[in-house]
Design a protein that fits this description.
By secondary structure, this protein is of the alpha+beta class. The protein has helices at residues 2-19, 23-34, 39-43, 55-91, 110-124, 138-141, 153-156, 173-183, 223-238, 291-296, 313-321, 334-337, and strands at 128-129, 135-137, 160-161, 166-168, 187-196, 208-218, 244-248, 254-263, 280-289, 305-312. It is elongated and about 125 Å long.
Length: 340
């Protein structure tokens, strides 16, 4: 009787294996019959209950059923595998005679676009484009710009300090100092580059951003010269008239100093996160070079004077392209960058 039940189990299981429509159904039959707790596996435990003389015959029937079921299972599994491979080849077929797609071309980051336009503009006005180290010493970043150790302006810089009195430059003004030391007057120069501030990041502030600072040292330079170059700069970069305001500002390296603000181009002056609901964005701190700065670079302020200005390339790019969050610019999201 036990042998008959094994034969019935084998016959029924073979029929189920052959009728399986998916690999999952086939696997379910295998687990139910041949698995560790399957019916055929459990039947092997019945051998110990048989008389010694009946055990060999029952074992042969059991092993034969197991062998036939495993063979049929492997055959059906092979059919499913072949069908899946055929479907994949059909779906992923590639005509190797077709020409390959062209490589994707990169494009310039919006800040790089702004920087290159300004470099071209100032070169046409007779300015040199200078560069300097991003890891600066305390003298060039602060002392030579009329910001001694006890000066409160140092606390406003939120500096990343390194070992040995070095730091990550907080502005590109040190390049102006190095330009005066190396070239001397008369001098026209701009210094674009990356700067670092230990600030909290929000929609309008980043710890790493880009600036462009400029300087003109000559005889009889006035505020009128400064305003001419600033208006020329803004008209060239925005390709239209923009609303600006000039108000007094304090900076240790210029005297007198001014803040040139631009009406927010994101909200049109109504107030948003970029302009902190004020309708204005600080864009161009500027002024006439402080005589102490000239003296620190061995330039006689009785003979020479000049103006200096600085602007945020990052904020300028935000105004130019209508970007409402500064964090997009260095986020690395290609979906954002591919818009430009």
């Amino acid at each position: 009787m036990l042998a008959d039940s094994i034969r019935e189990l084998e016959s029924g299981s073979l029929a189920r294996i052959r009728a399986a429509r998916t690999l999952e159904e086939l696997e379910a039959v295998r687990v139910e019959v041949l698995g560790r707790k399957g019916t055929l596996t459990l039947a092997q435990k019945e051998i110990g209950k048989l008389a010694p003389a009946d055990r060999p015959a029952f074992g042969q029937i059991l092993n034969g059923a197991k062998r036939d079921l495993e063979a049929e299972f492997d055959r059906r599994k092979s059919e499913f595998d072949q069908a899946a491979t055929g479907a994949r080849l059909k779906g992923e077929w590639l005509d190797l005679t077709l020409p390959a797609p062209p490589p994707r071309r990169g494009h310039l980051h919006p800040i790089t676009r702004i920087q290159r336009e300004l470099e071209e503009l100032f070169r046409s006005l007779g300015f040199a484009v200078l560069d300097g180290p991003e890891v600066e010493d305390e003298y060039h970043n602060f002392d030579a710009l009329n910001i001694p150790a006890e000066h409160p302006a140092r606390d406003m810089q939120d500096t990343f300090w390194l070992e040995g009195g070095h730091l990550l430059r907080t502005h590109t003004s040190p390049v102006q100092v190095r330009g005066m030391e190396r070239l001397g007057p008369p001098l026209r120069m701009i210094a674009p580059g990356r700067v670092f501030r230990n600030e909290s990041v929000d929609a309008s502030h980043e710890h790493t951003f880009y600036q462009l600072e400029g300087m003109m040292i000559d005889r009889d330079v006035s505020v009128a010269h400064l305003l001419y170059f600033m208006k020329t700069l803004l008209t060239a970069i925005f390709h239209r008239e923009v609303t600006v305001r000039l108000r007094p500002g304090y900076f240790p390296f210029v005297e007198p100093g001014f803040e040139l603000d631009i009406q927010c181009l994101i909200c049109g002056g109504t107030g948003c996160a970029v302009c902190k609901q004020s309708g204005w964005v600080e864009l161009l701190p500027c002024g006439l070079v402080n005589p102490n700065v000239l003296r620190m670079s061995a330039i006689d302020p009785e003979e020479w004077n000049g103006f200096a200005f600085g602007l945020g390339l990052t904020r300028l790019a935000m105004m130019r392209y209508g970007i409402d969050d500064i964090r997009h610019l260095q986020g690395g999201d290609l979906r954002f960058l591919e818009q430009f």
